[in-house]
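Quick one:
INPUT:
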């Protein structure tokens, strides 16, 4: 099995996206709509990047990104609502700690995004394993 390797540029992009995601929870906006729009924009950029990667790369990488892209689209249009799962156990915990609903929304949307990205990554891995096992590859 090959060890995953990441370039420093890729690591910096991931850290920057996570920092931007966390910064959206403290946007000085009265309604909080700006933070939601930025978070949805981040997820949209992930989907667009996955689509371009599925077109640009070849071989096993193309299979991974195609599976990731299809899973993200399927979750967006017809998938389960992961926020229900995240809210079911985080809401009582955070309401007792903070007495406000804002931390609940922060944690719920973050857990929903992590679940969505994780499910899509697993779908991409399955697609790349199917590509490895295909008869045309042997």
């Amino acid at each position: 099995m090959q060890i995953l390797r990441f370039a420093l540029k890729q690591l910096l992009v991931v850290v920057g996206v996570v920092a931007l995601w966390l910064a959206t929870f403290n946007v000085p906006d009265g309604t909080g709509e700006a933070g939601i729009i930025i978070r949805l924009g981040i997820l949209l950029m992930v989907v667009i990047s996955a689509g371009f990667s599925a077109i640009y790369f070849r071989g096993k990488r193309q299979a991974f990104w195609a599976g990731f892209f299809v899973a993200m689209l399927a979750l967006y249009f017809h998938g389960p609502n992961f926020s229900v799962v995240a809210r079911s156990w985080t809401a009582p915990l955070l309401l007792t700690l903070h007495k406000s609903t804002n931390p609940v929304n922060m944690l719920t949307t973050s857990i929903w995004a992590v679940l969505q990205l994780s499910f899509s990554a697993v779908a991409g891995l399955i697609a790349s394993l199917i590509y490895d096992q295909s008869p045309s590859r042997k």
